[in-house]
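ugh ok fine here u go
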Amino acid sequence: MIPSSSPAKSKGFNGWQFYRNLFNVPWWGVILVLLGLGIGSAIASNPDYAKAFQQLMAAVPLTIFIGLTSYFCSIIIGLIIGLIRSNPPKPATTVAGIPFSIVRTLAYHVATVYVEIIRGLPMVTFLLLAAFVLIPYIRTEVLAPIGVTFPFRGTSVEVGIIGLALAYGAFMSETFRAGIQSIEKGQVEAARALGLTFFQLMRHIVLPQAIRRILPPLGNDLISMLKDSALVGVTLAQREITQTASVLAGSNFKYQAYLITAAVIYLFLTISLSLIVKWIESRLKMHTR
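structure:
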């Protein structure tokens, strides 16, 4: 028979309460900490792993720079495209509103074409197209005739950041669109009845609520962006963590040490970001109570 919990406080060891508290322990965190300690001790005690760790840590700043810069640029792109696609165009009700209606319709369909094309291409393919097709075309066919010099090479870090931002911006735009459209229509109609403009409505009512609702997928996109920074190294030969590990391992054939160490560094970065996102979510929940 399972003992029932009693509100009365009992002195001494309470076996049933101890059993129940075991289910509240974040065992996944305990396992990760123990695993990290074991791997850390193995890296410190093995000269090959220690050397690989020291060399790969030099590539961490570039990986973080690519991931964070691309992420914040993709948020801006995703928010703009999400705002455009969250309000399908409608025919103008007055003659004066016809030009605005035409511009809005054109922007909506251009944004839709952009989203559909990007979502239909593999990330690696799009990065290669940006580096070896799109950037050379803009440099030679668009800017050169008017005497403007493009500041970036096709395989530069900046091109990789632009490519990742454009690619993730298309995916994030759908996240923003879903969050905006999830806001109850009654709130929108009430705000319009009070005379709020579209930008006031979005700034003060819709976006604050929508961002709270879409914060988990936005956090997942941040983690995915950090991992996909490896694609910039693979496609554009930038010396981030994965490319550095591949080059160094190929020079001395110690693939196990370099690749396992690279995986450990990525896990540490992504788990740290995951914990930060969870902390932000908990803080937002506390403010909304």
